[in-house]
Write a structure and sequence with these properties.
By secondary structure, the chain is mostly helical. It has a domain at 76-173: Serine Threonine Protein Phosphatase 5, Tetratricopeptide repeat (Alpha Horseshoe), CATH 1.25.40. It is built from six helices and no strands. Helix 3 (77-92) runs antiparallel to helix 4 (97-116).
């Protein structure tokens, strides 16, 4: 019985040494688990990068100032309509807190949609307008701070109040 155990032990040691010999290769033989190239956060942002396809200069788009927009064009017509209705209500009743909150929410909704479309400079303007009509809008504060912190992290200047470009024009196909 002891000879049998010694035989099994010898086979086990022999097998282990073969596996170890097979694993000792050069650095070229060892392949990394992740083949993709590591990229920085800057690589993934589209802010201040050209929009694919034919683009117009800010002056040709009717924009003034140094801020041009980037990101994906989205159809903001639904949001624009809600904002127009809410602005009419605020003009008719400027001291109505409910009308002001409705307008704040309308600007927030469009700002959030613009953020999802990576149109950060335009979204800043909508979040600022949302706070103008409802200074207690915590979500607007959070997103405004978030976008500004991204600009700061990237060491890029962000549009000051009133410098924000309009949303990118959307062309229906």
């Amino acid at each position: 019985m002891s000879k049998f155990l010694l035989l099994i032990f010898a086979i086990f040691l022999g097998a282990c040494s073969q596996v170890q010999n097979n694993r000792s290769g050069t650095a070229e033989d060892i392949k990394p688990l992740r083949a993709e190239k590591l990229e920085s956060t800057v690589t993934h942002t589209s802010e201040n990068q050209p929009v694919p396809g034919p683009t117009a200069t800010p002056e040709q788009q009717g924009q003034k100032g140094k801020w041009t927009q980037s990101g994906n064009p989205i159809d903001t017509a639904k949001f624009d309509g809600v904002i127009a209705e809410a602005e009419k209500a605020v003009k008719a009743r400027p001291n109505d807190e409910s009308a002001r909150k409705t307008l704040s929410e309308a600007y927030f909704d469009r700002g959030f949609a613009l953020t999802e479309a990576r149109q950060y400079a335009s979204a800043l303007g909508d979040f600022r307008r949302a706070l103008k009509y409802d200074p207690n809008n915590e979500e607007a504060k959070k997103w405004l701070d978030q976008i500004i912190s991204i600009y700061d992290m990237l060491k890029k200047e962000y549009p000051k109040e009133g410098e924000e470009p309009p949303p990118l024009p959307f062309k229906k196909s």
